[in-house]
């Protein structure tokens, strides 16, 4: 199995059985191959967040299957899904969501400790990742002491801390001005390529989407 993510016939309807059900996804097939970076482009309201939540095991589809790293997630109990999420997935959002009271390095160390990595190994990995995004000199700074672009670069490192199989990103540079967005996106792409990571990256920015391996367009149902 060479696909890191396979969505097969995925459907999602909100308010099923109620007076006003909203079908957002219907028979959706999507794959991300190992090492592939896929852009997800969707008009507002087409279900981009719903799709990312389903792929990220934060929500379950009403129909179809989600196969992550070769393992069918359908019907797994919450605990197993949480475990798979922690082991296989990294997340980046439009806003960095770093813990404000911790330094850049600590923000990257903490998720590793939660996954059973030793303190020494976690710190070495944090230092390596910060070096890759050009922030070795910011390791001891807290988020509020960094610029928006720097905060987002730390968030990329945190997403990769546990060496996930797949990165899921929702407008990862959407909060930055266009020039910073371009530069920070370069950093993300270099990081993804250098680590051989697979990624599904939602963006409204067509120039950024064009730089990925493949574009998946989500149409409103
Ligand atoms: N819990 C819910 N109950 C009912 N409808 C919902 C619910 N969550 C989302 N929707 C509807 O489903 C559709 C898709 O929502 P979703 O958040 O996935 O869109 P999106 O493509 O991410 O939009 P945007 O880019 O504007 O954030 C929208 O029409 C939304 O109103």
TrEMBL record:
PROSITE patterns from the UniProt entry = ABC_TRANSPORTER_1, ABC_TRANSPORTER_2
List, alphabetically, the GO terms of the cellular component aspect.
Answer: membrane protein complex; plasma membrane
Superkingdom field? Bacteria
The Gene Ontology terms for molecular function here are: ATP binding; ATP hydrolysis activity; transmembrane transporter activity
Every copy of the ABC transporter domain together lies at 5-221
* Xref: Pfam families: ABC_tran (PF00005)
Q: Which GO terms describe its biological process?
A: lipoprotein localization to outer membrane; protein localization to outer membrane
CDD domains assigned: ABC_MJ0796_LolCDE_FtsE (cd03255)
Matching InterPro entries: AAA+_ATPase, ABC_transporter-like_ATP-bd, ABC_transporter-like_CS, ABC_transpr_LolD-like, MacB-like_ATP-bd, P-loop_NTPase
Q: Which UniProt keywords apply?
A: ATP-binding, Cell inner membrane, Cell membrane, Membrane, Nucleotide-binding, Transport
Q: Which family does it belong to?
A: Belongs to the ABC transporter superfamily. Macrolide exporter (TC 3.A.1.122) family.
Record-linked PANTHER family: IMPORT ATP-BINDING PROTEIN, LIPOPROTEIN-RELEASING SYSTEM ATP-BINDING PROTEIN LOLD
Q: What is the protein's name according to its record?
A: ABC transporter ATP-binding protein
Q: Which organism is it from?
A: Paracoccus aestuarii
State the organism's lineage. Bacteria, Pseudomonadati, Pseudomonadota, Alphaproteobacteria, Rhodobacterales
């Amino acid at each position: 199995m060479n696909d890191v993510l396979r969505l097969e016939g995925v459907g999602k309807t909100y308010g099923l059985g109620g007076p006003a059900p909203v079908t957002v996804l219907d028979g959706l097939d999507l794959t991300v191959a190992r090492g592939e970076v896929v852009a997800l482009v969707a008009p507002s309201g087409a279900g981009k967040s719903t799709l990312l939540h389903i792929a990220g095991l934060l929500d379950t589809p009403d129909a179809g299957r989600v196969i992550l790293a070769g393992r069918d997630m359908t019907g797994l109990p919450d605990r197993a899904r949480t475990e798979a999420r922690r082991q296989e997935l990294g997340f980046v959002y439009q806003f960095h969501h770093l813990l404000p009271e911790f330094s850049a390095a600590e923000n990257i160390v903490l998720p590793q400790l939660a996954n059973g990595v030793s303190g020494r190994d976690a710190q070495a990995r944090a230092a390596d990742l910060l070096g890759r995004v050009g922030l070795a000199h910011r390791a001891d700074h807290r988020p509020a002491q960094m610029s928006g672009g720097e905060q987002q670069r730390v968030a990329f490192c945190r997403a990769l801390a546990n060496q996930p199989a797949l990165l899921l990103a929702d407008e990862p540079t959407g909060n930055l001005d266009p020039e910073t967005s371009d530069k920070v996106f370069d950093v993300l792409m270099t990081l993804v390529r250098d680590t051989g990571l697979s990624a599904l990256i939602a963006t409204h920015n067509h120039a950024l989407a064009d730089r990925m391996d493949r574009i998946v367009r989500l149409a409103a149902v």
